[in-house]
């Protein structure tokens, strides 16, 4: 569970940005989006195959 401790005299917006960045790094949002809707196995394989290829 990600946690962000708000420092003294720190604006709430800055702490919120740190929290969002931490969630993004841990991949929680991506996982949440994946689980939000059912994805057919063929679509899942296609997505994984596309993400594996890197264009240089």
From TrEMBL:
<dbReference type="InterPro" id="IPR038380">
    <property type="entry name" value="Ribosomal_bS21_sf"/>
</dbReference>
<dbReference type="GO" id="GO:0005840">
    <property type="term" value="C:ribosome"/>
</dbReference>
<comment type="similarity">
    <text>Belongs to the bacterial ribosomal protein bS21 family.</text>
</comment>
<protein>
    <recommendedName>
        <fullName>Small ribosomal subunit protein bS21</fullName>
    </recommendedName>
</protein>
<dbReference type="Pfam" id="PF01165">
    <property type="entry name" value="Ribosomal_S21"/>
</dbReference>
<dbReference type="GO" id="GO:1990904">
    <property type="term" value="C:ribonucleoprotein complex"/>
</dbReference>
<dbReference type="InterPro" id="IPR001911">
    <property type="entry name" value="Ribosomal_bS21"/>
</dbReference>
<keyword id="KW-0687">Ribonucleoprotein</keyword>
<keyword id="KW-0689">Ribosomal protein</keyword>
<dbReference type="GO" id="GO:0006412">
    <property type="term" value="P:translation"/>
</dbReference>
<dbReference type="GO" id="GO:0003735">
    <property type="term" value="F:structural constituent of ribosome"/>
</dbReference>
